């Protein structure tokens, strides 16, 4: 087991939550331009977790099917970002954004392309908020759409990059619907340490 890089203290958690909320706020504004429905996004919690935590605590049964959009990134920080939905939540979100009825062939055909667009917006806005505030830069791969268990979706990334990952609980509110989705940031160990160091420096303010 890799050693836990740093404790996600209250002060560090608050600073990171603020940066991420700026990003999801921008993402909500962009998503609102895609649909006639009013969309809001919020981040109720952020935690530093392992794959075992995700399997046993966060997602319950390891074989529950999830829908995910994944993007690799490199530069000042290197790793993988994923926007993950339970399949029922993914279907609700796609139905709202496309105005297609759930369970129709048209909705199934639109699922991947719609979620890729949503994932691209959310991940870029969240990572952009973090990197811009820390004056860092990253490059992204093209987003890909996947379905499967949480273990299947992130196991190879967790094994290759870092057992520890940032789990960002995200909630989409679209009129009367409340749709669950989560953001996972799996960074190389040095990148996670660099991110926390940057957050500490930002929280400390300018040097005297």
TrEMBL record:
Domain of life where this protein originates: Archaea
N-terminal signal peptide: none
Protein's GO biological process: chemotaxis
Residue span(s) of domain CheC-like protein: 13-46
UniProt-listed Pfam families: CheC, CheX
Keywords on record: Chemotaxis, Hydrolase
Protein name, as recorded: CheC, inhibitor of MCP methylation
Protein species of origin: Methanosphaerula palustris (strain ATCC BAA-1556 / DSM 19958 / E1-9c)
């Amino acid at each position: 087991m890799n050693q836990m890089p740093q404790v996600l203290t209250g002060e560090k958690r608050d600073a990171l939550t603020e940066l991420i909320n700026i990003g999801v706020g921008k993402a909500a504004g962009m998503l609102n331009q895609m649909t006639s429905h009013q969309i809001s996004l919020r981040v109720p919690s952020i935690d530093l977790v392992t794959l075992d935590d995700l399997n046993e605590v966060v997602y319950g049964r390891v074989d529950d099917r999830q829908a995910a959009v994944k993007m690799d990134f490199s530069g000042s920080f290197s790793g993988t970002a994923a926007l993950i939905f339970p399949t029922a939540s993914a279907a609700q979100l796609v139905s709202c954004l496309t105005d297609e009825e759930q369970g129709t062939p048209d909705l199934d055909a639109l699922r991947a392309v719609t979620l890729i667009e949503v994932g691209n917006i959310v991940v870029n806005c969240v990572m952009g908020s973090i990197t811009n505030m820390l004056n860092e830069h990253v490059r992204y791969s093209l987003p890909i759409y996947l379905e499967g268990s949480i273990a299947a979706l992130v196991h190879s990334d967790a094994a290759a990059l870092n057992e520890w990952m940032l789990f960002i609980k995200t909630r989409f509110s679209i009129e009367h619907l409340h749709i669950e989705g989560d953001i996972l940031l799996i960074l190389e160990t040095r990148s996670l340490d660099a991110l926390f160091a940057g957050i500490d420096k930002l929280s400390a303010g300018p040097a005297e």
